[in-house]
Specification:
Rossmann fold; two-stranded antiparallel ribbon; single chain; binds uracil; binds 1-O-pyrophosphono-5-O-phosphono-alpha-D-ribofuranose; alpha/beta; 33% helix
Length: 208
């Protein structure tokens, strides 16, 4: 069974409210996506493996730990791009591998258009970054691509999800845990999350 984690952190709730606001302009929107992503990354990586190490302080030797897994950040173009910077700041040795998908507006099916993954996996854990889980088609297709690549450990990080998207992703990939800022009511008849925040790509990039 998949685990669905919905952040209960007050800062996430506060910032998400600002993000949803129709009056929030692209510059502020990008800043909020970055900040919420950092907070979600903290929750997403809470079980990350550590290796023991020692460090020399000005006073002597101290026991310490360092991250023991190679991390891959997988932003889904376009909207996932805005989540990279904040998460990457927290784990600067992560590799970033982009996947390009967009939803056909009529069928709502994902169309893949970009994938430059190397032949075999170079990371131990993949964090899929995409703010919106609507029908779940794009997220499920991204996980399909990563599994075909050979990725064994995959987590999904998103800002807003519809129940339909959660059902699709957890049904197709029960081994992939979800880390979300909030779960909304439903999808509308054109596949948008309600109440949602509108189009996450357009609001970040000032398009549409
Ligand atoms: C958005 C979003 C997801 C997808 C979610 O991307 O960033 O990738 O829709 O919808 P789904 O769960 O129904 O598949 P979009 O297709 O708008 O592309 P864009 O980021 O390039 O604007
Ligand atoms: N993609 C978005 O950007 N917003 C939605 O509500 C659904 C899909």
């Amino acid at each position: 069974m998949s685990h669905v984690h919905v952040s209960q952190h007050p800062l996430v709730k506060h910032k998400l409210t600002l993000l949803r606001d129709i009056n929030t302009k692209p510059k502020k929107f990008r800043e909020l996506v970055r900040e919420i992503s950092i907070l979600l990354a903290y929750e997403t990586t809470a079980d990350m493996l550590l290796n023991d190490t020692t460090v020399t302080t000005p006073m002597g030797e101290a026991h310490g730990q360092e991250i023991g897994e190679k991390i891959g950040l997988i932003p889904v173009l376009r909207a996932g791009l805005g989540m990279v910077e904040g998460v990457w700041e927290m784990m600067p040795s992560a590799e970033v591998w982009h996947i390009g998908l967009f939803r056909d507006e009529r069928t709502l099916k994902p169309i893949a258009y970009y994938n430059r993954l190397p032949i075999s996996p170079t990371v131990d854990i993949c964090l899929v970054l995409d703010p919106m889980l609507a029908t779940g088609g794009s997220a499920s297709a991204t996980v399909d691509i990563l599994k075909k690549w050979g990725a064994k450990k995959i987590k999904y990080m998103g800002l807003l999800a519809a129940p339909e998207g959660i059902a699709r992703l957890t049904g197709d990939h029960p081994d992939v845990p979800l880390f979300l800022a909030a779960v909304d009511e439903r999808l509308n008849d054109i596949g948008y999350i309600v109440p949602g925040l509108g189009d996450a790509g357009d609001r970040q990039f000032g398009t549409g």
